[in-house]
Every structure is written in C-alpha cells, then in structure tokens.
Amino acid sequence: MSTYLFSSPRLGFRTWQNFDLEHFSPINADPEVMRFFAKTFTQEDTLAFMNRMNKMYEEKGYCYFAVDLLETKELIGAIGLGWKTFESDFTPCVDIGWRIGKKWWNKGLATEGAQACLGFARQKGISQVVAMASVGNLASIQIMKKVGMEFWKVFDFPDLADRPDIQSCALYHISLSK
C-alpha cells in the first residue's frame, strides 16, 4: 500500500515506484495520449521519466507525481509540478502538467488533480505556476481555465522544434501568493 504525499477526494499523489512501470508504460506508448508530445515513450523512456521525477522530488520537493485512483488504487497517470529551464523569457519557472490514460478521460480527474497540485504548490510557498499546451490541445487548455489559470501568450516551444504541427503553445499562469 502506498503512502500518499497528499490527496484529493478521488486521487492519491505519490512518488514513483518500480511497479508503476508496467502500468505507466502503456499510457506513454498510446499515440492518442501522446498526441501533443514530441513522441510516444518506450518502456525505457518511461523508466527514465519516473527516475527524473523522483530525482526532481528529492531536489525540489515536487514533481509530476504518480497518481492513483483512491477507490481502486489503479495508477491513472501523472499529474504534478515541474521545473522548466528551457530558453525562454518566462523560464526558469514551475509548471503544472498532466498525462492520464484514456480510460480516465472526461471524468474531471485531471482538473481535480491539477487543483490539488496547485494547493500543494501554495503550501510549498510557490508564488506562480504556469501551464503550457499545444494550441490544438483544447482539452488541456480547458483544464487550465477550469483551475483558474489565465491566458498569458502563445509561444513556440523549443522542445517541439521537430514537430511544427504542435510547436505553437498556449501559455497560462496563476498567482498563488495571497
């Protein structure tokens, strides 16, 4: 049984464990889930991602967390905070992101998870969080709006230079200092 760092009514957030690989790999290999990413992930890519997230958690106190549906203890994907340092006029910055399996789409889980992560960020003393998504990724942009984020601008994401079809990204932000 996993110990959760924090939870929402339906979701538990934790660091990554070796047993997550068999459940997270198919999510990352799904072309529909990964439509707005540079590429689908191999099992090795997924393991590297999980290891990077655990290292980020050790260093920063946050990451894109492994997220379980509390009712069934199933891993639904990743929702959390990241540290972005790519070359831009708004980096370095903390961003929020999500990637969940299709089975859990359209149930409000990404929105619920994003709200919980913004609360976690506030507790950590993070004053501003950004979110970015390809301008065609209307589902993610809708989540950004639902959690109270405001449109900032459109930019070309440098990590997607090889994918001009999805490189143009909408950037949203929210101030957490109160």
What does this molecule look like?
With 178 residues, the chain is α+β, with helices and mostly antiparallel strands. The chain has one domain (6-175): Aminopeptidase (3-Layer(aba) Sandwich). Helices cover 29% and strands 30% of the residues. It is built from four helices and eight strands, in the order E-E-H-H-E-E-E-H-E-H-E-E. The protein has helices spanning 21-29, 43-60, 109-123, 138-146, and strands spanning 6-7, 11-14, 64-69, 74-84, 93-100, 128-134, 150-156, 168-175. Strands 1-2-3-4-5 form a five-stranded antiparallel β-sheet, sandwiched between helices. Strand 1 (6-7) and strand 2 form a beta hairpin. The longest helix has 18 residues, at 43-60. 31% of the residues are buried.
**How many whole angstroms does the radius of gyration measure?**
15 Å
State the CATH superfamily name. Gcn5-related N-acetyltransferase (GNAT)
* Overall tally of structural domains: 1
CATH topology: Aminopeptidase
Biggest β-sheet description:
5 strands, antiparallel
Distance between the ends: 36 Å
Question: Into which percent range does the helicity of residues fall?
Answer: 25-40%
Strand order of the largest sheet: 1-2-3-4-5
What is the SS-derived class?
alpha+beta
Tell me the series of helices and strands, N- to C-terminal: EEHHEEEHEHEE
